Amino acid sequence: MQEELTKLRDEALQKVREATDLKQLQNIRVQYLGKKGPITEVLRGMGKLSKEERPKIGALANEIREVIAGEITSKQEQLEKAEIEKKLQQETIDVTLPGRPVRTGNHHPLQAVIEEIEDLFIGMGYTVEEGPEVETDYYNFEALNLPKGHPARDMQDSFYITDEILLRTHTSPVQARTLEKYKGKGPVKIICPGKVYRRDTDDATHSHQFTQIEGLVVDENIRMSDLKGTLEVFAKKLFGEDRQIRLRPSFFPFTEPSVEVDVSCFKCSMKGCHVCKGTGWIEILGAGMVHPNVLEMAGFDSKKYRGFAFGMGPERIAMLKYGIDDIRHFYTNDVRFLKQFKQA
Q1: CATH classification of 109-341 is 3.40.630.30, yes or no?
Q2: pTM
């Protein structure tokens, strides 16, 4: 039995020394030290030995097991180190080679304008609210004083999914939802940026998908002068401190009175040019005092609360601010176009 164990030891150690990779070494470990290995078989057969032989054979078997395990561990360390050295040689980096330039991105001009407008109104105490782009007819129209069959609905040629579900045509539904959330108690002071959809024919100034930013303020003692003052601050911050605004009467079903808002031309300083079409003024947004019906439908007492609302198209503002002549440039993802706005 001793000779058999000694032979197994010498045989295992020889194979360990000749092993050239970790997989081969693992197979040797299983072959000699595994549950079905010859050393384990010897230990299982010790019951057949005499009492005098058992301690000697047991001690020898354990000693041989430890020797083989130790050699395998030592060989494993050598092979792992050699493998690492080989990888390092294969993956050597020539630090003298010139590096590849890292191209950094920049804000899309439209996104830059949206964030600039958001920052401006957040600084004035507004919060940013968002809502679903797939909207119900009630919030998109009825809650905004546009009942079914109202002729003003034709102004917003809509993408209907069902009779009651459509792609929102403006971000005003966010205002209606937010007013409901306040449960008839002011103040409310929000802006609502987001995508909107209308069945427009795409051309240089129109798109079936575009963005809007709408604002809403509801509280006690809100007046038209508050709206005018807010829009003056907005125009001066966005287009320059020497800008002026003017309000022209208009009609929107959800505001009364309603106005169109013009800003003095920043290109020609009101002298007349191609940007302002010779008028000295550029239309930038629509606004007005919130219609009492809209307040009442949202649960507000229209005798106690008043408010104003305004809405603008960031595409139009970006086109004016950066001299962009075609709205489609915003959506074609032409890198040559986007590279022009690294400082935007």
Answers
A1: no
A2: 0.67
